[in-house]
Amino acid sequence: MPARDVARADRRVRRASGVLAGLAVLLVLAWWVDGGGLTGLVEGGSRAVAECGRLCGLLASLLLLGQVLLAARVPVLEHAFGQRHLIALHRGTGVASFAGMLGHVGCASWAHGSGGPGGVPDGFWLLTRTWPGMAAASLGTALVVLVVVTSARWLRTRLRYEWWHLLHLWGYAGVFLALPHQLWAGREFTSSPLRTVFWWGLWGAAVAAVAVWRIAVPIVRSRRHRITVAAVLPEGDGSVSVHMTGERLRELGASAGQFFVWRFRSGRGWPAGNPYSLSAPPTKRTLRITVKQLGDGSAAVPNLRQGTRVYIEGPYGRLTPRTRTSPRVALIGAGVGMTPLRALAEKFLNESADVVVLHRFTREPLFAREFLRLARERKLHVVASPGRRRGPDSWWGADAGRVDDLAALRARIPDIAVREVYVCGPGRWTAMVRRTVLAAGVPERRVHVENFG
User: Per-residue pLDDT averaged across 69-75, rounded?
Assistant: First the structure.
């Protein structure tokens, strides 16, 4: 499919997703009003508190299920939104659903307590003992709180990725434990067949999405393609490339620029997956990733032995050739963010595109020999920006001199405004690059960003 048609199809999916989400919210609000919600607010007292709690619970339930669907790796959403936008939506939805959950628990406990805010503990204990499914809901709420707390930036950055990932998976258990009490006992869920079908259908869709795309499909693909480690080779600057072989790998549908979640069956912590991008275009028999030693999982990668079995989840990511609409391409990356861009560079050169690579690095550049070979044999243009960043508000190295970021970019890539731009690197760095690229006149639809952290 031509890139313009792909972009049009993705826009339709994004638009349809937004419309469906908006309709679901309006439907829930309408049902709340029909169930006496506004009347209860006007009446005041404990009835108003109960209705506020009921509304918070309904919206929190809807957002929690939406949050699960956003993180379930559903292919149509992955292709249309890309990981960066899905993660942002997942995070924002999670904050709103968590606030709604706390409001629901607090208001419901207040309304059923001995009177006033001081009766909240008694009301909570009464609900937990007497309402169907409330014991499971309390445990589910505790698990969701654990996930939210460990997802806070100040704590997440201090946790090893592998530990954070394992803790985060408990969020699924929390959601699926927290919701059924409403499906069993809440009048908003059981007062009509349509409402029962809506809520149970949405809950079932969330469960099915996780079961299929996060569990069943990865297991089937891993068994079918029988991927094993062929070699582990050093790349410099604390990075290594893992070369893998497998069977019928074309059937994975993977593309240069995408990533998988990898599990190498070696050592005790192998079930904890790690996301690594392909650093070379995939073939029908081979895959390659390049890993920098940053966490527990990546530190073990250099010690992988030939023949180690590999389990995969993916491919994911929208930083792919399917989005390209221009014959000229600029690839801008920093550090290990060059990994997907290295694969894209070779892919675009194979498609006869005019490719320039802008490489930011502090000490030793990744893929220096490979980029040199591509420059010599395939006319790849490489722009290096070495050394530490020249300041906290600039994404350039000291080589850029005293000119601003926009002038430095235009000096090195004069035709940047007519190029398709792909950016990958640390989150804050990629945000600065994106602003500069847009200021240079590149249309937003031709700027594609992925970040890591």
Answer: 89
Q: What is the pLDDT of residues 267-317, one digit of tens each?
A: 766 677 888 999 999 999 999 999 987 665 677 888 899 999 999 998 998
CA distance linking residue 433 with residue 427, whole number of Å: 10
H/E stretch holding 275 reads strand 274-277
- Three-state secondary structure call for residue 424: strand
Structural domain of 383 = 321-452
In terms of domains, do 194 and 149 share one? Answer: yes
The answer on 233 and 114 residing in a single domain is no
* Count of CA atoms in the C-beta half-sphere (13 A) of 29: 6
Q: Which of 166, 174, 173, 172 is nearest to 150 (CA)?
A: 166
Mean pLDDT for all residues in the chain: 85
Please give the Cα distance from 25 to 97 (Å, whole number): 13
Identify the burial level of 102 via C-beta atoms within 10 angstroms of its C-beta, where 0-12 means exposed, 13-18 middle and 19 or more buried.
middle
Count of structural domains, the chain = 3
- The dihedral sign for the CA sequence 7, 348, 287, 275: negative
- Phi–psi pair at 21, nearest 5 degrees: -65, -45
Q: What is the pLDDT of residue 240?
A: 92
Q: Is 38 a residue whose pLDDT tops 90?
A: no
> Do 349 and 421 fall into the same domain?
yes
Report residue 451: phi and psi, to 5°: -135, 165
pLDDT score of 157 more than 80:
no
In this structure, the number of other CB atoms found within 10 A of the CB of residue 326 comes to 16
Asked if residue 49 has pLDDT above 90, the reply is no
Residues 306 and 325 grouped into a single domain: no
The residue among 184, 219, 254 that closes a domain is 219
Q: Which residues contact 321 (CB under 8 A, 6 or more apart)?
A: 255, 256, 257, 344, 347, 348, 351
What DSSP element (H or E) covers 372?
helix 368-378
Whether the upstream peptide bond of residue 426 has omega within 30° of 0, thus cis, is no
Segment 84-113 mean pLDDT: 81
10 and 137 inside one domain: yes
Q: What are phi and psi of 264, to 5 degrees?
A: -95, 120
Q: For position 311, what pLDDT does the model report?
A: 95
Count, residues in the chain:
453
Give residue 82's pLDDT.
80
